[in-house]
Amino acid sequence: MTNDVLALLQRPRTASTARLPIGGGKDYPRTEVALQSWITSRVSGKFDTFRVRDLLERYGTRADEVMAFLAAGEDHPLHCTAELSSRELEFMVQNEQVGHLVDVLIRRTSLAFRGLVTVEMLDEITQHLSVLLGWDDTRALWEIQHTRNTLLRFTP
To answer: Model-level pTM?
Structure first.
């Protein structure tokens, strides 16, 4: 798209970001040893190895920012999955442009792609998002149905 705009403006490209790591890709561990070191250095009473690895996979090195956010408030793991917590959902709403249930399951996590979504998960995440996004019961039901329809449409 940038090339199209530059062509319309009759301007040459002066720099390329094609190989520039952005966001969580910046300083991402490049080897298994570096990856293990990154994870181990962040394991604490609040974050076990599994949680740190999961946050790194989801956010890249921005996981440091996420862990600071999680540690700064009351956080509870979800009952339906150890991969998410109440405070991480809050982070997603505030920082990751989550506006729908389907955003969490498809765009912000890989839960749907790995076939891990359950009815319990839909209900529990919707309860949290309803509070965070001000959904009433009608909207919450719509979000669940829309997400189910989306997941079914792409299931072979």
So the answer is: 0.84
